[in-house]
Amino acid sequence: MEALETELTFTRFDRMSELYPDRTAVIYLGENFSYSRLRDLSERFAGALADMGVKKGDRVLIYISNCIQWVIAFLGIQKLGAVLVPVSPIYTSYELEYMIKDSGAETIICLDTNFCYAQEVFASTGLKRAIVTNLAELLPFWKRSLGVLFDKIPHGKIERDDRVHSFKSLLKHSPMETRINIDPWKDLSYILYTGGTTGFPKGVPGNHIGMTSYVNDVTDDVAGDHLKEGGDIYLAANPLFHIMALGLLMSLGLNMGNTTLLMPAPQIDAILETIQRSGARWLLGVPAFYRMILENDRLDRYDLSSLRYCYCGGDVLPLEVFKRWQENYGIPIYQVYGSTEAGHVTYSRIEEEPKPTTIGLPLKSRECIVVDPMSLEPVRPGESGELLVTSPYTVKEYWKKPEETKHSYVELGGKVYYRMGDFVRQDADGELVYVERSADIIKHKGFRISASEIEAVLQDHHTVIGACVVGVPDDKVGERVKAIVVLKEDARGAGGAELIKWCRERLAAYKVPSYIEFRDMLPKSKVGKLLRREIRDEERRRIAKEKHNWQL
Question: Which residues have C-beta within 8 Å of that of residue 27, sequence separation ≥ 6?
Fold first, then answer.
């Protein structure tokens, strides 16, 4: 493995701000933020955090939607040597409390619209301060006024006290002057949370060198000469709390002196209008995103001819969407594949016409092997097996979860591999072909949902004795969440509506089951292990039969 350049993602951004100070770094809700302005704001934010007592290694939780404040906070936290903990802004206080306690975060950055959830967990966690913002807070006064006038900007109620600070007011602080010494191998850049096999989300720690490794791979090897330093435009609509979107923000945008069009929400007409107006050439989405574009009733009103490089990740791209996109625009959709634990792993290469069934070739900083899931012996070329991934740059453990680490990481030949839980095969050209995923993971609109996390919440209900959660295939969103539930014999008054309400109070909206089915028992192995795959196969057979009957 070649030695990796140690210029970190945020220091490379600083270099871009010196090379292109007046170049627009981010356009957010029509407001331009130049590289010099963005750097100044991030250093002011870092200085304010330091003055509040946030130190190197402290965890700072970001609980906000895509907005310019997200980018400012990310860069400021990195410059300070603190650890970013990004979470979905739609998480409930139930989920938020666990992640704050588990990460040890003492600072939370939230929106005024979800401040109430942060406020609820102050007493039960180690939180010391909340930094509150509004989606339009950094826009000019006239834009904010129009947004309020036409009721386009959501607002939430904030109860002020000594622990609650305004994001905007912190940007008046003097810039941080002291340069923090960061060890790219030992010091953490972030902790991201992903679903656990025991029902609790797992913290995935990422060091600075690990993030830099895949960002550099994408910039230098995947995009290469196709990406114009200081003169390209990338549209970012995916949530930045996902590793895929955060990585491409840096590799295509801020680390190359390019302009990122940051969308606060995936509203299709707004995205299409932005592409037409800006001439964006690079785009990232999940399969449902591309399908929504193709099915938009007003699609013919927009000129998308500027698009050249469209990437898709988060789930398998349906062949039908792949073909329709090519027919409509004469350009392909390329694939990106990875995980929170392994980072970005494989990409379709721009020089080759992408095959609709493959997830691409491994990045040069990632080593992939395909093995038999039981023996962990490599399978023969062309055979299906579980994908294992390693890299000399990544952290190979979960945050304070030794049992989860043993379950998901394995040592082979002196190297520690992460078990992706996805089944693939390698074709004659070395590209990986996706076969199927583990029964434990559900993919809905690009989100990876842990079945066991939802099962744990359901089993906390006083009437439930057992639960099995699976993904039901759906052409539009990938999979929908279905729960099979066994009630206690003396259960009274519990129905599907009651259990869905229970889940809504404890889980982000995208994790809540779409369907609940009641049964007398669940399939289990001889040692009592839930056979989730059997339920999943039942659902597939049922859907196939329904489609067959419908065609008749």
Answer: 33, 259, 260, 261, 262, 278
Report residue 3's pLDDT band, with 50, 70 and 90 as the boundaries: very low
Q: Classify residue 78: in a domain, yes or no.
A: yes
**Domain count of the chain?**
2
- With a CB cutoff of 8 Å and minimum separation 6, the contacts of 487 are 463, 464, 465, 494, 518
Residue 391 is encoded by which pair of tokens? 């890299």
pLDDT digits (tens, 9 = 90+) for 195-207: 766 678 899 999 9
Q: Final residue of a domain: which of 306, 334, 362?
A: 334
Per the model's pLDDT, the better-predicted residue between 438 and 310 turns out to be: 310
416 lies in a domain? no
pLDDT > 60? residue 5: no
Range of the domain at 523: 449-551
Q: pLDDT, tens digit, for every residue of 44-76?
A: 999 999 999 999 999 999 999 999 999 999 999
pLDDT tens profile 271-282:
999 999 999 999
pTM of the predicted model as reported, rounded to 2 decimal places: 0.86
In a domain, 489, yes or no: yes
Q: Is 291 helix (H, G, I), strand (E, B) or coil?
A: helix
Q: Would 514 be classed as within a structural domain?
A: yes
**CATH code assigned at 185:** 3.40.50.12780
Distance CA 85, CA 83 (A): 6
Rounded Cα–Cα distance for residues 392 and 1 (Å): 8
Place of tokens 């979470």: 87
Distance, CA of 161 to CA of 1 (rounded, Å) = 52
Q: Could you tell me the two tokens for 132?
A: 């509150």
